[in-house]
Design goal:
By secondary structure, this protein is α/β, with parallel strands linked by helices. The protein has 12 helices and 16 strands. The strands form 4 sheets. An 8-stranded mixed beta sheet has the order 1-11-10-7-6-2-3-15, with helices on both faces. It has a 3-stranded antiparallel beta sheet with strand order 9-8-13, with no helix packed on it. The protein has a 3-stranded antiparallel beta sheet with strand order 12-14-16. Helix 2 packs antiparallel against helix 8, helix 4 packs across helix 7 and helix 9 runs parallel beside helix 12.
């Protein structure tokens, strides 16, 4: 059987070489995508190997992946789940756990965030009846303006939940100081920033909980997938429980009675000795991922140093190529004391020169360069807010002038490791061509 499996895996490697190995870029024919899968034969071999084992839920591959990611980040606990959005849901859900006693979040509590970002950073806040408080951004870092946070804090404020925008860390020093001063929880949405550093430490590890996404364009991929990580054992217990249906039992799939008291304890108002595998201490979900996804992740973990290196190099090349395009364009700037592992390259089309973000992005798309806006731009203006627009379901602290400017004038292009120098040079040439056609 082992020999047969070896033959299958060798054929899988051959299949990769024939059907998936990257091909040379052809100008005018091939589209330059903002992101994509970065993999080789090892991911496919791991996936096929796991599929032949036919363990269809989380198991040994998941255990290996969780430990590997925790070791990479330098944290104690990691829980693999089915998406980055689910990771954010689990992270916020954990803060509502009764295990936290008086520090648990309840409906009506306020959470500091921003309106410019991916919606599932704030969706869990609203779903639990808490109140997102939106603070304005700053340019050219595209993160929350940390100098406006304190004035947004009220007696109801219990947490801060923010993303590191496209890999650029927000000001963790200042925000951590505010969390300590006011006793606030901090959730780092690290979905676009895996591998980013702040003061020599990985982002996602400064707060109480960090989250990651492994959707194909992200820094690493498991297809669909995400992770939640923490150094707090109580939070980890809540995260695992809520990921696994809300159950109180911590036995892994396929294992029974790890705790040793499966039929001996009393829980809630259940009968004495009620099966611990069916005791629920939280209102939970099933947000587990599978060993098939974890097997891909194990191969991807080995590539993270190379992925980070290439993303930084690609970012630097774009910056060098676009020198001279200011003052017409504002190029992104890393947060002070940080070393971003960039997810994308943000460009702000400056006002006052007769230029248009819409016009420039259409020009790029027409020339086969894929672009993206900064996600929601300003989530308040989206249809999902229509029913709560005039309610107290959310609060805006001050104004969102910079947020609106980003919504109207900013876009980004890719830096993912599959980018070749030829692709990068083509993208930047197209941006400069647009400016030349406008007379600049």
């Amino acid at each position: 059987m082992d020999k047969l499996k070896e033959q299958i895996l060798e054929l899988t490697k051959q299949y990769y070489e024939e059907h998936h190995k990257p091909k040379a870029f052809e100008v005018g024919k091939d589209k330059v995508n903002y992101g994509g899968r970065f993999f080789d034969a090892q991911e496919m071999e791991n996936l096929v190997s796991a599929s032949l084992d036919f363990w269809l839920t989380n198991g040994e591959w998941t255990d290996r992946f969780e430990k590997g990611l925790a070791n990479y980040l330098g944290v104690k606990y990691c829980a693999f789940c089915n998406s980055g959005s689910s990771a954010n849901l689990l992270a916020f859900s954990a803060l509502t756990s009764p295990l936290l006693k008086e520090r648990a979040l309840h409906a009506g509590d306020e959470v500091i965030s921003v309106a410019c970002g991916f919606p599932t950073t704030i969706t869990p806040i609203l779903q639990y009846g808490c109140v997102p408080v939106f603070v304005d951004m700053k340019l050219p870092e595209y993160n929350i303006d940390e100098n406006k946070i304190e004035e947004a804090i009220s007696p109801k404020t219990k947490a801060i939940m923010l993303a590191h925008t496209l890999g650029n860390p927000f000001n963790l020093k200042k925000i951590k100081e505010l969390c300590e001063k006011y006793g606030l929880w901090l959730i780092e949405d690290n979905c676009d920033a895996l591998g980013s550093m702040y003061e020599g430490k990985y982002t996602g590890t400064f707060g109480d909980i960090g989250t990651s996404s492994f959707y194909p364009p992200h820094h690493m991929t498991t297809g669909e997938g995400g992770a939640v990580y923490t150094n707090n054992p109580i939070l980890y217990r809540a995260i695992k429980s809520m990921r696994d249906w809300g159950r109180d039992c911590w036995c892994d799939s396929g294992r029974d009675n790890t705790c040793g008291y499966r039929f001996t304890k009393q829980f809630g108002q259940l009968p004495l000795g009620y099966d611990h595998k069916y005791v629920y201490s939280h209102f939970g979900y099933n947000l587990k991922a599978t060993d098939l996804q974890a097997a891909i992740g194990c191969a991807q973990l080995e590539k993270l140093p190379e992925i980070g290196k290439r993303r930084r190099e690609n970012f630097e090349r774009i910056t060098n190529n676009l020198q001279g395009c200011e003052p017409y364009l504002t190029l992104p700037k890393a947060e002070e004391n940080s070393d971003p592992c960039w997810f994308g390259y943000l460009i702000y089309v400056n006002e006052g020169y007769g230029l248009s973000r819409l016009e420039l992005t259409k020009y790029l798309e027409d020339h086969l360069v894929q672009t993206r806006n900064l996600f929601a731009g300003n989530i308040i203006y989206h249809p999902c807010f229509d029913e709560i627009r005039d309610s107290d379901a959310y609060r805006v602290a001050g104004d969102l002038t910079v947020t609106d400017n980003i919504m109207n004038n900013a876009f980004w292009i890719g830096v993912y490791p599959g980018m070749t120098n030829e692709k990068i040079d083509y993208m930047t040439d197209m941006i400069k061509n647009y400016l030349k056609e406008k007379g600049y």
